[in-house]
Amino acid sequence: MRSSGGGPVSAKSADYREPDLSQPEVDPLDDSAAEPLAAPFETRTAAVTAALHGVRLDKALVAMAPEFSRSHLQQLIAGAHVQLDGALAQTASRRVRAGQQLTLALVPTEESRAYTPQPMALVVLHEDEDLLVLDKPAGLVVHPAPGNWSGTLLNGLLAHHAAAATLPRAGIVHRLDKDTSGVMMVGKTLAAVTALVRDIAAREVYRRYLALAHGVTAAATFTVEAPIGRDPHVRVRMAVVPLAAGGRPARTDVRRLGMSDGRGGGDAVSALSCTLHTGRTHQIRVHLASLGHPLVADALYGGRPALGMQRQALHATELRLAHPVTRLPLAFDCQPPADFAAAWAQVPGAAT
Hints:
A hairpin with a 7-residue loop joins β10 and β11. The longest helix is centred in the middle third of the chain and has 12 residues, at 190-201. Residues 1-39 have low confidence and may be disordered. It is elongated, with a radius of gyration of 25 Å. The protein is of the alpha+beta class. It starts with 42 loop residues before the first strand and ends in an 8-residue tail after the last helix. The protein contains 6 helices and 15 strands. The strands form 3 sheets. Strands 5, 6, 7, 8, 9, 12, 13, 14 and 15 form a 9-stranded mixed β-sheet that branches. It has a 4-stranded antiparallel β-sheet with strand order 1-4-2-3.
């Protein structure tokens, strides 16, 4: 859907359908279900020499393919891409014998497949030659990383338009967490990417989120200004960290739009509007959790499932920016998906 600039754009049309995330994304290069060694990759075959007699299989492979790391060769062993005398060999510590025939299929690493175009359904709110604005569904990873080397938004962007392959991160200038839904922008040209990054750094892009948090906040309107950095105790989390210890400045404005005090037997929950002044990793999640109000169903930061929500209750609902090239004002309103909307509706007084 296109925006003419200046007015809000609805993310849902009459024929809109939520993306089906019940089936996992399939990597077209994933040959794990194929017959061992049948994939069209380079295959090397050699006899085990007397010098390698009695050594571990993974060490013998290092001598056979020295340009690859031992850890990668161990992955090939575990992935059924190695044979000894025509039979699969899937134990890295197995000892080889002189004269045995060793066969190795040099299957690319998952990481090397990360920048492969993968067509996917994108919910487009606006698109022109320079800018793409999307409604990202919950469950979609934005950028490849360990454990998610394929099926990401970046893969979809590479399939969506050819120029994405020439841009840093395929034009991605900011991210939403995997389980956060909502509006996000992508540059389609280098000039647009540069301008968007500059505008974000200058805090000229307005981004507002809806959140459901455990408990009732002490004030109806407040600001959290606390630096954020990597949690020194749990490396997969972020935390409020002093500037002197590596934290980076972060500010979130919060307004309570509704609340359930729990007296009816359910959990006490606050329905919140959160406006970012900075864009640190997990910023809203960390700031609210630091006050004792983790997001509903945000297990990483202490949240519990409630109101039917099984993923963190966070939705990017509003985006305002100047077009990166024309500088005309653009505004987008993105309505929450069904799970979030149903949970939100259970909080008395909640409005968006």
